[in-house]
Amino acid sequence: MRPFPILAAVLGIVLAAAPPVAAAGPRATATVAAPVPDAGVHVSFRWPLPGTPPVVRRFDPPPQPWLPGHRGVDLAAAPGTPVLAAGTGTVTFAGAVAGRPVVTVGHDDGLRTTYEPVRPGVEVGVRVAAGTPIGLLRAGHPGCAATACLHWGLRRGDTYLDPLALLGRGPVRLLPLDGVLR
Fold it and tell me: Could you state, in order of their start, the residue ranges of all structural domains in the chain?
């Protein structure tokens, strides 16, 4: 799948819906939403915690795959909070990775969401709908200043993506109003 036609479609929709902006010359910019990992994907996904949890650390991928970075987002919640499947899919992993409890859900569109530290409440092979409880949040996520944080990850193949893009909340990008990148 080529991302450019999807990006152009998303940007066209966003720009068409945006209020008019007075141009300040050829380099004026407008704020537009970030592209989602696949056209329409964000419609069937939801927050992996009840309500709208605070994002305490955003997606910050490294410039090279082998370098350190933050390959997901951290969402603050109380220990014991139910963790919910962000989208419909099949549980492909429920166990420990490097001593931390992790649940992974594979989605029909080739995406995989990961959740940790989560005490699994589901077994591998179980089909879940968006919003289905898959476990309970545990305290102690490294680098989280809150009592407990859910590290929510998203991958397509070997590529890490920003899971907030599933909700239409990815990073904001500034583009020239005239559409010409300089």
Answer: 3-36+170-176, 41-167
